[in-house]
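Reading a protein record of the kind used here takes only a little practice. The integers have meaning only within a learned vocabulary of local backbone shapes. With that in mind, consider the following protein and its fold in token form:
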Amino acid sequence: MNLLAQLLVGLVALLHAGFLVLEMFLWATPTGRRVFGLDADFAGRTRALAANQGLYNGFLAAGLVWSLVADRSDVAVFFLGCVVVAGIFGAATVSRMILVVQALPAAVALTVVLLG
């Protein structure tokens, strides 16, 4: 992968590591509630579901890091494709903001990896 592709894949990996932290550890805290616009009761009741989401985001980040360490564009394409699909589904079912925060960066990175 070229340097730009590596930087973009790394950025998407960092975003998903951040999502992991927010969803697994900060969901019911004031920071997590503010980021996701949750009230304390709902955040408390959905904490386990959010932790599960966070774990999946961690797997996406790990796969993207693997693609960088192994210098495998095919692995990057797979995991970036997963992120794009998850972002589109999240935008359709939860919030359109997910399209901008999750799917768009992954789609840009995917395009650069494919063009490289």
Observations:
- The two ends are 6 Å apart (CA to CA).
- The chain has one domain: 3-115.
- The mean pLDDT is 97.
- The CA atoms of residues 90 and 96 lie 8 Å apart.
